[in-house]
Amino acid sequence: MSDIIVIVAAALLTVAGFCWRKIACAKLKGIEKPTKKEKRGRKYSTWLIVLGLYVLVTQLIQLIFGKPKSGMIEVSIATDRVNFFGLNISTSVLYSWGIMAILVVVAIILRLTLIPRLKDVPTGTQNVLEIAIETILKYTHSTAHSLGEFMASYVFTIAIFLVGCAFTELFGLRTPASDITLTAALAILTFFFINFYGFKKKGLGGRLKSLAQPTPIVFPIRILTDLAVPVSLASRLFGNMLGGLVVMDLLYMALGNRAIGIPSVAGLYFNVFHPLIQAFIFVTLTLTFINEATE
Q: What stretches pass through the bilayer (predicted)?
């Protein structure tokens, strides 16, 4: 009985919103430049319609399918494992392979179709590609200075891969970046480049000497600090990506049958914008640590 009352109330609320909006729009017709105060009626009536329709639709769904069973969320640090052609692998590895395969196919298509037909005046896809390359080159050069050109391809690859990981969540899949083994692999790769460029530019003696500045007393502390870099990078990326996953699961559980519209809006942040921020932070820290090792 309570469900019927809520449905009727939501329907009346929606009708009232439509009537209010019609009256508000009629008042604005004779005004050339309405003020914010005069626009409030149309604005508030629109929100009233949206609220009424949301409650009406979600309540009808709940009436038809019943209330969802209450439960608890279980989030595992380790991802699920599946059998893939006789191999028992984690889903994060499988999704990572899929992302890499897509990126390779796109790269081959661009190499065969776009690169041989480059124009002096870029248009369309060439323009987008050149803007992306110029942006990453400028950014790596400004952050890593003389190593910018060498690091641009690596940074661009990591960034595109993490963007691909972010978009897997839009398809209801767990992002590979929420697996500590994947973030650890990326962090170890970054750690390798930090020391590779450090030893390449300064040599063994110069690299060790830089770790002992300003006094030899800090040498063991600097060693521990450097060893903590991959742990920090891996944990930061893993924690943030897993946190976004947990928040979305909590939102779906809290809303139940009313999970319409709101998760989509929240997903734009937690499944798209937030992972992109984490990708940018990871790339920036990578370049910063490499720059510090070569200065």
A: 6-23, 44-65, 85-110, 154-174, 180-199, 268-290
